[in-house]
């Protein structure tokens, strides 16, 4: 029997998605459940098991060779555990072991969700053809991942490239992570909206006070909204430039809800990069929007399953 498919799990605070994916990144079967994020750990795991049950019921399941998981973090790939900030019932939760037993002992690869999206963008999206890339998700939080020397670089625990917690403002606001002035504390959607509101921006009659609403106001020329996005752009530029200077990437891919703001973000971001990425080897660094959309987490988890240590060892890599 052919074993030419992999299973993928994308676990976040809102939804648990799963898919059967072929070697070209095509999604053949899908399943999804809402994440019972405020329930105890076993209840959350039941939702995962239900989603996996939908996959194992497929006639294609017999062709599955491995399973990849992209999970909200922190994750610890070396221990096979997850402690997602937005799923309090999971702290050091043995997800790999539980999933492996739910799928009959198949090989399981775990990576953080930022790394999963990086894997997807490198395989099928905006970082395709680039050997050294940073891919970022700018949303409720700010995450990311690295491709170095043509390969995904998740690091020992699966968290390498977590650009959201580079400090770019030494005396900045305390970040929930414990540090100060982190990229995430300035550039995440809720923090863009928070700054705009603090500086006098007011939502329209619909009461929408999200970063998307601030982006719409910025597009319409509201100076406070524009300034909030410019501040976020500078934080992102400083973090991207620091990363490029450290590991010599030539492209940064920006996705997530805030990444969808378009020129309101990318205009000031590219301009700010010229202030921070000043050395000769980082001056050609380009910043582009992500291409993979909502399936990025699944496609990236599949990429991890297709190229993980288990598969690489089997292939003699």
UniProtKB/TrEMBL annotation:
Coiled coil: none annotated. It holds the Pfam family ROK. InterPro entries: ATPase_NBD, ROK, ROK_cs. Belongs to the ROK (NagC/XylR) family. This is ROK family protein.
């Amino acid at each position: 029997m052919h074993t030419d498919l992999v299973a993928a799990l994308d676990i976040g605070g809102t939804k648990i998605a799963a898919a059967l994916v072929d070697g070209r990144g095509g999604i053949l079967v899908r399943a999804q459940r809402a994440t019972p994020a405020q329930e105890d750990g076993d209840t959350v795991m039941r939702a995962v098991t239900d989603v996996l049950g939908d996959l194992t019921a497929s006639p294609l399941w017999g062709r599955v060779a491995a399973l990849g998981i992209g999970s909200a973090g922190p994750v610890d790939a070396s221990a096979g555990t997850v402690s997602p900030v937005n799923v309090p019932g999971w702290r050091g939760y043995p997800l790999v072991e539980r999933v492996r037993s739910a799928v009959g002992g198949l090989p399981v690869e775990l990576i953080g969700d930022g790394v999963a999206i990086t894997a997807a963008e490198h395989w099928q999206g905006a970082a395709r053809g680039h050997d050294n890339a940073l891919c970022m998700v700018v949303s409720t939080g700010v995450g990311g991942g690295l491709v170095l020397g043509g390969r995904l670089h998740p690091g020992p625990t699966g968290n390498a490239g977590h650009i959201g917690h580079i400090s770019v403002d030494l005396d900045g606001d305390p970040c929930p992570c414990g540090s100060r002035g982190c990229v995430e504390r300035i550039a995440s959607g809720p923090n863009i909206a928070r700054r705009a509101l603090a500086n006098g921006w007011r939502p329209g009659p619909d009461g929408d006070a999200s970063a998307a609403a601030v982006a719409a106001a910025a597009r319409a020329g509201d100076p406070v909204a524009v300034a909030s996005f410019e501040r976020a752009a500078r934080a992102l530029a400083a973090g991207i430039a620091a990363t490029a200077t450290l590991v010599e990437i030539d492209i940064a891919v920006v996705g997530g809800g805030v990444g969808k703001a378009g020129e309101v973000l990318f205009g000031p971001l590219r301009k700010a990069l010229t202030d921070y990425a000043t050395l000769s080897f980082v001056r050609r660094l380009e910043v582009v929007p992500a291409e993979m959309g909502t399936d990025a987490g699944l496609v990236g988890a599949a990429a991890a399953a297709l190229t993980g240590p288990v598969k690489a060892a089997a292939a003699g890599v």
